[in-house]
Each structure stands twice: as structure tokens, then as C-alpha cells.
Write a structure and sequence with these properties.
7-stranded mixed β-sheet, mainly beta
Length: about 120
């Protein structure tokens, strides 16, 4: 089983930055891609960004394009989400996810098989 642990969340003022980390178990080698999703209170989970382990190909949601950057360190089984120019609407619990059974790195949550516990990001105005 792939185990994912997010960290790096916190409280930040609008315009500030945070970097989230997702540490994965060694079984992540069998996963095609890692993704970041977020869920705000009363809202459905939404896609943020993804990256493939092998090629580093990335996908971003339009709402974060140009502000967020996803990256990976394969040797550490770790994926990062650098969040700059944060806005209050970025406030949410952020989850990392791993795709497994299929080759997928897109925005659909159904394409990911393993999920972390989440880390809270709060952006104040």
C-alpha cells in the first residue's frame, strides 16, 4: 500500500508563500503520478496540480497557474507544492494523491488511488 504524508501547511497572509511536502512510501515506484488536491469547507475537492514520476510532466488548474509550482525529488519519494501569491480563496485542506493502476496524471480525483491525510492552508486577507 502507498502511504502519503503531507506537511507544510499553516497560516499565511494574502500575497505570501508556503511550500507543501508530500512524503511517499517506497511503493510509490509503482505509481505513475502524484497530484495535489484541495477541499474548502462546504465545497467539493478540486484538482490543483500533478506531476509524473518518470518524466516530470506537470498539469495545473487554471486557478493556480503561474502561482503554484509542483516538483518532485524521486530519490526521497517526495513531491512539493510551492505556493506563491496566495489568495484567501486558496484556503483549504490540501491533499496529495498517487495514481496507481492506470497511467493518469490529470485533474480527475477518480484517477488517483491513494490519498494522504491532508494539511491545512489558511490565507488571511
Amino acid at each position: 500500500q502507498v502511504q502519503l504524508v503531507e506537511s507544510g501547511g499553516g497560516l499565511v497572509q494574502a500575497g505570501g508563500s508556503l511550500r507543501l511536502s508530500c512524503a511517499a512510501s517506497r511503493r510509490t515506484f509503482s505509481s505513475y503520478a502524484m497530484g495535489w488536491f484541495r477541499q474548502a469547507p462546504g465545497k467539493e475537492r478540486e484538482f490543483v496540480a500533478s506531476i509524473t514520476w518518470r518524466s516530470g510532466s506537470t498539469v495545473y488548474a487554471d486557478s493556480v497557474k503561474g502561482r503554484f509550482t509542483i516538483s518532485r525529488e524521486s530519490a526521497k519519494n517526495t513531491v512539493y507544492l510551492q505556493m506563491n501569491s496566495l489568495k484567501p480563496e486558496d484556503t483549504a485542506v490540501y491533499y496529495c494523491a498517487a495514481s496507481g493502476g492506470t497511467i493518469y496524471s490529470g485533474p480527475r480525483a477518480q484517477g488517483y488511488d491513494y490519498w494522504g491525510q491532508g494539511t491545512q492552508v489558511t490565507v488571511s486577507s
